[in-house]
User: Fold Transcriptional regulator, AraC family from Epilithonimonas zeae.
Amino acid sequence: MKHNSPTFEAVSPDIGSSFTCLKFNRNENIKSHIWHYHPEIELIFVCGGSGKRQIGSNISYFSDGDLILIGSNLPHCGMTNENTNNDYEVVIQFPMDFLGSEFWQAKEMNKIAVLLEAAKSGIVFGDEVKNALKTKMEALAEATSLAKLMILIEILDELSHTQDYKILNASKYYLQTQKEDNDRISVIFNYVKDHFKEQITLETVAELSNMTVPSFCRYFKKITNKTFTQFVNEYRITHSLKLLAEQPMSITEVCFDSGFNNFSYFNKTFKEHTQKSPSQYRKEFSNILA
Assistant:
């Protein structure tokens, strides 16, 4: 099976606009599952639905829509597919200098400039701000010309003032500027994405990277700030969260479908990641939806 590097995505502004704003109805954003990157900053709003996302080396699950800010050249994939069941998705893309190189240096733009710098590591916003901005996201998708630009600035301003967010890649994400690293690590990421339900050996991924096992382990830890085992377990646990929330499977079935071949190890790893047992997580998730 061929494992591609992240795809470079060429982004063109909308006609009559200095940036791109796309609205996709359910299942329309067919490229979202492809590992890709672009120099443009990207703001993604998913209305409703649930799914997995991978931003840099962070793999996580969202359960009721999503609001993500992704910095320049930060590889990402996920968000929506045929199983997400979202209402729609709004994708905004703009280069850092789309309003001129001096614009973000204005005192009034200081907080937004700080926000855009933090976005290099990927930012996910919480339910409070996500719900508060829903109307503006819809208005942005429908607006034209100057009104469109004004709404975008208003949205970025609100995001720059909220405390309701989480940085997805806590340490510097080295893949932003290192194309060679980008290509090499993407082969590994894609391999894990395609084979996480199977046993994955260090020998296999080291060979994919044209490295010895010790060199690969040091390299992967330096790039992602995680061991390879931690990364694979994170991917498997994220998959199990989705199954526990959405599928009427037994916890044992969830364990094995997520790539774990030992139930006690699954329970231990799940609790390390979520501070809850799988049964607690499912029960609490069901109570939220009830």
Residues 183 and 289 are 40 Å apart (CA to CA). The first strand starts at residue 7 and ends at 8. The mean pLDDT is 86.
